[in-house]
Design goal:
Helices cover 18% and strands 39% of the residues. The protein is α+β, with helices and mostly antiparallel strands. It has a single domain, classed as Roll (Thiol Ester Dehydrase, Chain A), CATH 3.10.129. Strands 1, 4, 5, 6, 7, 8, 9, 10, 11, 12, 13, 14 and 15 form a 13-stranded antiparallel beta sheet that branches. The protein has a two-stranded antiparallel sheet with strand order 2-3. A hairpin with a 2-residue loop joins strand 7 and strand 8.
């Protein structure tokens, strides 16, 4: 699938194409592709017990040559593909292309989940959807790499990022707002995690010119209810003349559970 856009204020940020907008848009493209892949007119899924089910993202990997390559009124395309990698797992790729040049390569893994309790995001389970159609394809190498990285980070395996120095910065707390940080399914929106990490980074280290993201990996293990507080802590970091790199974990304050790991790489912006 190919979709064309013209960059305007919703698609742009201070540093070029908005990463937050891009995650949301490609998440929507992933959701629409799930319906098409399953032969449905709209993305409306229920588990075998009739409960509403949603495709929750378990891992995302973004690689870019520079989001600043897209400016106001530039036309660009998003090329999307999706495959089924398990009974309730799917993997999509999204290439952002401007003028024949690829700007972004985005990979997204999801699994269908069902709430165990009404309106509670702390009790969710893998959904059973016997009616879900589509051939199960071998897991792409990139999806397998993301899965292994997720397991190692969740287990706090520091050897996977041995080049990072332990971070001295203390945790920063955020109270997610239901009007802006949660989605229509009442979950903390997957793209909000990226936003909280960037806000925390800006508080840890402000600079004259904010650096530009080059790589970002996000791995999700849980969610929060409205009214719960997030704690964002930098686990490790590195900085040199090229840019910065850090490993950040996100925990919910109510029980201390780690609900996400985020690996960020950025380069310095030069004017």
């Amino acid at each position: 699938m190919i979709h064309r856009y013209r960059a305007g204020m919703p698609q742009l940020s201070y540093t070029g194409l908005s990463e937050n907008w891009l995650l949301k848009e490609c998440g929507h493209r992933h959701w629409e592709a799930l319906a098409e892949h399953a032969g449905r007119a709209q993305p409306d899924f229920h588990d075998d017990n009739g409960h509403r089910s949603y495709a929750a993202f378990t891992g995302i990997r973004l690689q870019t040559s520079g989001l600043d390559a897209i400016a106001e009124n530039d036309v660009f395309d998003i090329h999307s593909t999706l495959c089924r990698t398990g009974p309730v797992r799917h993997f999509s790729t999204h290439r952002i292309v401007r003028g024949g040049n690829q700007i972004v390569d985005l990979s997204m893994s999801s699994a269908f989940l069902t709430r165990g309790e009404a309106r509670s995001n702390r009790v969710v389970a893998r959904a059973a959807l016997a009616a879900l159609s589509g051939e199960i394809a071998p897991m792409p190498e990139r999806a397998a790499q993301m899965l292994q990285m997720s397991k190692r980070l969740r287990a706090a395996d520091r050897t996977v990022l041995s080049d990072l120095e332990p971070a001295a910065a203390g945790p920063i707390e955020f109270l997610p707002c239901p009007n802006g940080d949660f989605n229509g399914a009442n979950f903390l929106y997957f793209a909000s995690f990226q936003a909280f990490v960037d806000r925390a980074e800006w508080q840890w280290r402000q600079c004259d010119e904010p650096p530009l993201v080059t790589n970002r990996s996000l791995f999700y293990y849980g969610n929060v209810d409205v009214g719960d507080t997030l704690s964002v802590r930098m686990v490790g970091h590195a900085e040199n003349e090229q840019g910065i790199r850090h490993w950040t974990e996100v925990r919910r304050k109510s029980d201390g559970m780690k609900i996400a790991d985020v690996i960020t790489e950025k380069r310095w912006r030069r004017r």
